[in-house]
Amino acid sequence: xxxxxFAAANEIRPQGWLKRxxxxxxxxxxxxxxxxxPDVRDSAWIGGGKxxxxxxxxxxxxxxxxxxxxxxxxxxxxxxxxxxxILSFQRPDGWLCPCKDGERARYxxxxxxxxxxxxxxxxxxxxxxxxxxxxxxxxxxxYTLLKSGEIxxxxxxxxxxxxxxIALNFLYARYREDWIADLARLLRVQGFDxxxxxRRWARPKRKWRYDTHVVNLAMMLKEEAVTAPxxxxxxxxxxxxxxxxxxxxxxxxxxxxxxxxxxxGLSPTQGTExxxxxxxxxxxxxxxxxxxxxxxxxxxxxxxFNALPAALSDDMWAHQYVQMSNQIACQKLKxxxxxxxxxxxxxxxxxxxxxxxxxxxxxxxxxxLALSAFLxxxxxxxxxxxxxxxxxxxxxxxxxETEYPFKNELHYRVVSDRDFVLKLRVPHDAQYRIRANExxxxxxxxxxxPKIIERPRGLFSVRYGALVFxxxxxxxxxxxxxxxxxxERKFPYCDYEYRPKSxxxxxxxxxxxxxxxxxVGDIPFSSAHPPLAIKAQxxxxxxxxxxxxxxxxxxxxxxxxxxxxxxxIELVPYGCAKLRVTQFPKSRRWGxxx
Length: 594
Prior knowledge:
By secondary structure, the protein is an alpha+beta fold.
């Protein structure tokens, strides 16, 4: 395992389409939760009477780096007020979470694990001198309570025990005290070992379990990467083995796993929880930092450029709880939903469809994707994901101008007062054209071609570089404004149904594709104006619908027989299409036109 560390939020300035995307987030739901959503606005973490567990920490985990990436003083001040309140309520013995002393044994310490990670993020952004001491006292108290048996890991904390290591590694690097390593071992002993559960992943059942919960599994992949500094053992390659098992039985074309909420198999009409997408991005980034294996960086791009924007409205005021790769409508499902354990409203776009965890947790995804752009590798710098951004620290300034993944062109400008090695990670199967100019300019272009990826049960997807393409379905929105359990949905933070208006029952008629480049607009992953398209020959077929839910397509087409003559349509990036068909068959005409 090599020692690498991603750049901090105060060392990166997003540019181009990335900055516009982060601005959408700041101006949308994430940037307003502390004003409109009771579980953040009135949370027990800041002395209020609402939720005092995971939602404020989840939100801060993304809101804090967003504030520093955008260098926005208002966002920074609002984040600071939450941290001030949280630290002011820390108990004399170090306990940090908002529960009474006598309730600690019944308080699921997943929230403690999560807020400890948030404090590390805040310190790396702000340099607040209070944080290391507060975190030291918090973790020392956690150690004392766990070692004495006054509390134990259970429920979420038991299945997410490794999340604590973000804070433990931070502390051990500063204090080198034996109790930190002892706490690490205690957590491993009381925490769950996912290798004992992987057989259950092969045959998902309609039963809620912690060990098949897709968010737990998304977090789990980084276990060895984060625990290795204190526990060792990274060479076992656990993450790769478990990822292959998950992908084989539950994989999607966009680098995620189905899970609504628990693993749901290979059907393209099962959902993937947005929390899992956010956590997969973080796990993939940390796995790449730990191993240098390009597989993890490629998966980071695949999920980040496809699954993430697909689950968010263009203005980022609404999100889905679960997304489907073949999603022909987002309308309330009556009766027993198609999802394994979620409600029939989980795929609607809104404030908090199904549960509010994703409302808070999606906030981390785009900021942490931005932070994964540059990786410090000793004295050298590695550009992990080619995103438009400026890195500036330690006498080095690297400016990357690019519209990747929409265009395959990178332009670097480097200014430095010392020699260092700039390492560039680019797609492994591309044919490059590299031009280096003085002073310190590097220009890279490469060619790519759309390719067909085989999926289970005779289905296929189309991929061009890091982007997956799909049949877009035009839609009209139905606004839903109401109050439920004291939480108001009111425009722009209301709920929406997306109702289809265009044809979607197609099969590929040939592999003759033509790429169409367009301008990347103010909304990078725009539904109305996608920055990229692929012209494809398709046949209309009789696909069919789910027998219980007419707003859901059948899992697999009823027939691939062409209905009429071939036609040309435009496929668009998965992240631009809120309604779409991503996994489709080849028609019976396939090959006859060659």
